[in-house]
Design goal:
about 300 residues, 8 strands, about 35% helix, elongated, 9 helices, three-stranded antiparallel beta sheet, alpha+beta
Length: about 300
C-alpha cells in the first residue's frame, strides 16, 4: 500500500517552498506593523508649539491665536470696551458655524451696555475701573456652558468647532462659550436598518444628540463617556461609551490605547476607526459591529463598549 501512496507524496523541496511562501509574508507583515507602530508613536509626540499657552498680554495673546488660526476669511475678532470703562476685551469666533444672534444678545449686550460695576448702586463705573474675570462670569454673563482655556491649540480647536473665545485685558487665557450652530437631521429611523416592529429612533451626525439618546434610554448613572480627538490635520471628536461596573477595565484600556495610536490625517466616518483598531485586518470574519439604530448597542449591558463618532 505504501508503495502505491509514495509517488503522490511531495518531496521535501515542495514542503520547503510551501513553508517559505507562508512564513515570508507573515514576517514581512510583522516588520511592517512594528515600523508603523514606531512611526505612530513618534507622530503622537506633539511639538512644544502645540502646548504653547497664553502669556496674559492682551495684544500678544490675540496675535498668537490669529497666527495659529491662519488666514481665515470668515474669522471675526470683535474688539470692544467693557461697559463704560477703557478696559479692552475681544470676542473671537468663526462666522457661519457660530450663532451670531446668541453672541449679540447674550455676550456683547451683557458686556457692553448692561455691564455695571459691583457695589456702586448702579452708578456708572469710572473709565479706569478694571473688571475681574470672576465677576463677569458670576454676575454678568447669562450663559450656561462656558469654560476657561489657556492653551493656544485647544482654543483654536474649539473656535473651529463654533465656540466663541472672550479675551479680557489684564487676565490670562480665554473664556470659551458654546455658541455652535450645527444643522443636523432628526433622529428618524435609519433607512439601512428598517424594522417592522420596534422603536423608530436612530443616531445622527451630531455627537451630543447621540450621547443624549443613549443617556435617556439607558437611565444608568454608571453609563460613562470618554472623549477623544482623532486625526492629525482634521481633528474629530469621538466618544467611547460603556457601563463602568460591567465593562472590563482591561478592555476599555485596550480600546483607548488603540485609538490613541491612530495615525491618519482625517476620519470621515466610524468605518475608518473599525479598520484601524480591529485585531487582524486580514481576517475574513467580522470583529466589530456598526449600527445606526439606537437600540442595537445593547452590548453595553453585556460589558462591552460602544464607539460614537
Amino acid at each position: 500500500m505504501w508503495q502505491a501512496i509514495t509517488p503522490y507524496i511531495p518531496s521535501w523541496q515542495a514542503f520547503a517552498q510551501a513553508a517559505i511562501a507562508g512564513i515570508v509574508p507573515y514576517i514581512l507583515s510583522k516588520i511592517m506593523s512594528v515600523t508603523m507602530k514606531a512611526e505612530s508613536d513618534q507622530s503622537q509626540q506633539k511639538p512644544e508649539s502645540a502646548y504653547e499657552g497664553f502669556i496674559g498680554n492682551f495684544d500678544e495673546d490675540l496675535d498668537m491665536l490669529k497666527a495659529d488660526l491662519g488666514q481665515l476669511e470668515d474669522l471675526n475678532v470683535r474688539m470692544f470696551q467693557l461697559g463704560y470703562t477703557t478696559q479692552r476685551a475681544a470676542l473671537v469666533f468663526v462666522g457661519g458655524i457660530s450663532d451670531r444672534d446668541f453672541i449679540d444678545t447674550h455676550l456683547l449686550e451683557s458686556l457692553m451696555g448692561k455691564l455695571q460695576p459691583p457695589s456702586q448702586g448702579g452708578a456708572v463705573a469710572s473709565p479706569d475701573y478694571k473688571y475681574t474675570k470672576e465677576y463677569l462670569v458670576e454676575h454678568t454673563l447669562p450663559v450656561g456652558s462656558m469654560k476657561e482655556n489657556r492653551i493656544v491649540n485647544d482654543c483654536t480647536y474649539d473656535i473651529l468647532k463654533g465656540d466663541t473665545a472672550l479675551f479680557i485685558e489684564g487676565h490670562l487665557g480665554a473664556i470659551m462659550f458654546n455658541t455652535r450652530k450645527v444643522k443636523v437631521r432628526g433622529v428618524d429611523e435609519p433607512p439601512s436598518e428598517v424594522l417592522v416592529r420596534g422603536p423608530r429612533l436612530g443616531f445622527n451626525e451630531c455627537l451630543v444628540d447621540n450621547m443624549t439618546l443613549l443617556r435617556q434610554q439607558g437611565g444608568n448613572k454608571k453609563l460613562t463617556f470618554i472623549h477623544r480627538r482623532v486625526g492629525k490635520r482634521v481633528q474629530r471628536e469621538m466618544v467611547l461609551a460603556y457601563i463602568e461596573d460591567i465593562a472590563e477595565k482591561q478592555l476599555v484600556t485596550e480600546v483607548l490605547d488603540r485609538i490613541s495610536k491612530i495615525d491618519i490625517d482625517d476620519l470621515p466616518d466610524s468605518s475608518y476607526i473599525e479598520q484601524l483598531i480591529e485585531d487582524n485586518y486580514l481576517s475574513p470574519f467580522p470583529q466589530l459591529q456598526s449600527t445606526e439604530r439606537l437600540y442595537r448597542p445593547v452590548c453595553l449591558v453585556r460589558g462591552q463598549g460602544c464607539d460614537i463618532s
